[in-house]
Design brief:
about 325 residues, mainly alpha, 5 helices, about 85% helix, nucleus, coiled coil, RecF/RecN/SMC
Length: about 325
Amino acid sequence: MAVAGNQRNDFYQIMGLKKESIDVEVNHAYKESSVGTGSGGGIQTGEEHTTSDNRASMRSNLLEALNEKRPGVVQMVKLADKERESLESVKNEEEDYMLTELSLLKWREKTVKFASEDNAVKMEETKKTASGLQENITAEREKIQDNLKVLKELETLHNKHMKRQEELATALKRCKDEFKEFERQDVKHREDLKHVKQKIKKMEEKAEKDATKITEITRQSQESTDLIPKLEEDIRKLQKDLLDEDTILESSKDKFVILDYWRYSFLKTRLGIKSVIWDQPRIKFHGHLGPHLLSPQLLHGLYPVPKIVGINMSSSFSIVYYKYK
């Protein structure tokens, strides 16, 4: 219905007229017509006649305007009827929906009633449970009080242990520092011990070498001691041999002088060399030999003949190298 009223207002706005003005004009025309006919057919005055003409012209103008707007109004009425029919279907749907909602509310009421009864039972059970829990809470509070007392005692004991722990931590720190110092000293002593061991090893090796040298020197000394008598005997023998060799040498000097004399003579004759250098040895040795001077044939039988190896010439004289067969 509210939708229909809104549509009528839209209709009046489309027509360009207000509902109040149309109603006023219609009522005014109706009153004038009733006044004109309600006089009982009496004679009208001139002024009344003029007024009635004006009113008639106004009514005719109004009727013409209304006749002009009638098709649009009829069309709007038809539209309003169609809208009303569509609204009837909507109304029926709304009524069905409201009935469904009413049925749903009734079922909800029943559900709430059943839930309320169930909740009442549960409330009783909850009250009983709450009373039991209250008793349990009271007992637990008593236990908590006892536990608080025990906790205070434990806190006191804990504080004592914490103090003891601090003392032990201080002692542990001191021991760690001492242990670090001990480790440092231990490393130092280990290094020193390592160096000492190396020195001892070197000294032992040196001692072994020295012992080997001492043994070798002792052996050589013993050998030398053993060789001294033998060497002394050899010295005596060599001294004796030296004396014998000196005697032989003295006895052989004359023979070598004669040999040298004939060698120079032989070389001079063989090579055909005439020089004062070759004559000087002859004169010198001739004086020494005297009666011992022998002939070449005799000397050839007594001494071996020298073999000339080569001649090396110099600026002044030649030197002949030879060796005996």
